[in-house]
Specification:
single chain; mainly alpha; Neurolysin, domain 3; 2 domains; 3-stranded mixed sheet; binds zinc ion
Length: 502
């Protein structure tokens, strides 16, 4: 390694360690910290983040990048060193575009706006949230201006969460999904009585729920020697390093699968972080490449694997042993229950079929809000009208409508599409893995996931953020992101479950 490459790596390792320490404090804040610790913790986190940020955007980093680039001597683009210089340069240039005063303003806004949002949601009062939302929109517009964009303003915001993705492309994905999903939702609605999930709403011991979820996550490939599971109100996953990955879940003693599937979802995120190549540790490459690719992993393990008939052929007898109240319920009934389609008003409770329509609604509204397409006061009615046309239901109030998500109060616009990108990608990746290992469904029926996990490690996890999402997807599957796999998956699975012809 050249001298300057070595110095660059040392500097980036310092910055990584600061951020890892910040992540530990952030994890603790959401799991074990007593409430009174909030103020000092916020101060600790902001000091650490400020130090990391200042070190990173300092001219010294830029000079080291420049000097390190000269030492690459034609190293292959996918080599660790060339990737490090390329990806870090992109991050460095982007971060330097945002003035520190603007970054501080964003942080302060999100703290304040979230407080206002919590109260507005509780009181079902959109009017009190309006100024905060106006602030978020203003900041998003200014951020896009700082970052720069060629086509639409939304491109700049999207790129923060999904590098390289364009608004036009997302709009095309949604158009394809919409034309297939809206009729599918309507056809299922006519046959909603074919599937019932009452069996899941009984009393289930929390400790046993935890043991079962842990056992399944471990079978899938989550390594508890390099990770752990804790409890939070809002489940999440965070990787400090590949050897220390934390996931969280919440338990509902009267609903079996809310904890189970959130555990499997977060385990999917966790396995991605655990699978990142050891040589990338201590660099900006040591995490997943985008929110969308990250979400493809949580969705693949939670839904495509976790809610499949194949997987439950192995696990259902074990579940019945753990919970004798399921003794009289056959596998097919259970499988239907965990896959019931229901036009929920709430995104986070949505099933696989309706989920992306929730995201499409938010994507459309974000673009409209940025463009100032209507007065803010009319936004709740726009929301409700879209709910009617996509789902056939109308929210009875704004708490269950436009006020339900935290994102807009946190100043985050351009984030939502990554959920759908991940969902669509999950099916494309699973198809590619099955082409490489046609025995995967058989293995799932035997409770074995090694080939699937191995394929994902080889093609996705180990690369960290060496490659931008599109390049990674093409390398792994041989083609760019497409909706064909996902639409095919939904039509087959839910066509069977709901007895839809064709
Ligand atoms: Zn997720």
């Amino acid at each position: 390694m050249g001298e300057n490459l070595g110095r660059l790596r040392e500097r980036l390792a310092d910055i990584s360690r600061l951020r890892e320490a910040g992540a530990v404090l952030g994890w603790d804040r959401q799991t074990y910290m007593p409430p009174a610790g909030a103020a000092s913790r916020a101060a600790q986190l902001s000091t650490i983040e400020r130090m990391a940020h200042e070190l990173f955007i300092d001219d010294v980093t830029g000079e080291l990048l420049e000097a390190a680039r000269a030492e690459l001597n034609g190293a292959a683009p996918e080599s660790d060193d060339a990737s490090l210089v390329r990806v870090t340069t992109r991050d460095y240039e982007n971060d330097r575009k945002l003035p520190p005063t603007f970054v501080r303003e964003m942080t302060e806004h999100s703290v304040l706006a979230q407080q206002i949002w919590i109260e507005a949601r509780e009181n079902n009062d959109f009017r009190t949230f309006m100024p905060a939302l106006a602030g978020t929109i203003d900041l998003a517009r200014r951020m896009a201006d700082y970052l720069g964009y060629e086509g639409e303003m939304y491109d700049a915001l999207l790129d923060v969460f999904e590098p390289g993705m364009k608004t036009e492309r997302v709009a095309a994905l949604f158009a394809e999904l919409k034309s297939e999903l809206v009729p599918l939702v309507a056809a299922i609605a006519e046959r909603s009585d074919r599937v019932d999930d009452a069996v899941l709403h009984q009393s289930f011991d929390e400790r046993l729920q935890e043991e079962f979820g842990t056992m399944m996550a471990e079978k899938f490939g989550f390594d508890f020697q390099r990770g752990r599971l804790d409890r939070t109100v809002h489940p999440f996953a965070v990787g400090f390093t590949r050897n220390d990955v934390r996931i969280t879940t919440r338990f509902d003693p009267n609903f079996l699968t809310s904890s189970l599937f959130s555990t499997l979802h977060e385990a999917g995120h966790g396995m991605y972080e655990q699978g990142i190549g050891a040589s990338l540790e201590g660099t900006p490459l040591a995490h997943g490449t985008s929110l969308g690719v990250h979400e493809s992993q949580s969705r693949l393990w939670e839904n495509i694997v976790g809610r499949s008939l194949d997987t439950w052929q192995h696990f259902y007898p074990l579940l019945q042993e753990t919970f004798p109240q399921l003794d009289d319920i056959d596998l097919q009934t259970f499988y239907g229950a965990i896959n019931r389609v229901y036009p929920s008003l709430i995104r986070v409770e949505a099933d696989e079929v309706t989920y992306n329509l929730h995201i499409m609604l938010r994507f459309e509204m974000e673009r409209e809000l940025l463009a100032g397409a209507y007065p803010l006061a009319e936004a709740p009615e726009v929301w409700n009208e879209k709910m009617r046309s996509y789902f056939g239901v109308t929210p009875p109030n704004d708490t269950q409508g436009i006020l339900q998500d935290v994102h807009w109060s946190g100043g985050m616009m351009g984030y939502f599409p990554t959920y759908t990108i991940g969902t669509v990608l999950s099916a494309q990746l699973f198809d590619a893995a099955r082409r490489a290992y046609p025995t995967i469904p058989e293995e799932m029926r035997a409770g074995e996931f090694g080939n699937l996990h191995g394929w994902l490690t080889e093609n996705i996890y180990q690369h960290g953020s060496k490659f931008q999402p599109e390049e990674l997807i093409v390398r792994a599957t041989g083609e760019p992101l497409q909706t064909r796999s996902y639409i095919g998956y939904l039509k087959t699975k839910f066509g069977d479950l709901y007895g839809l012809a064709g």
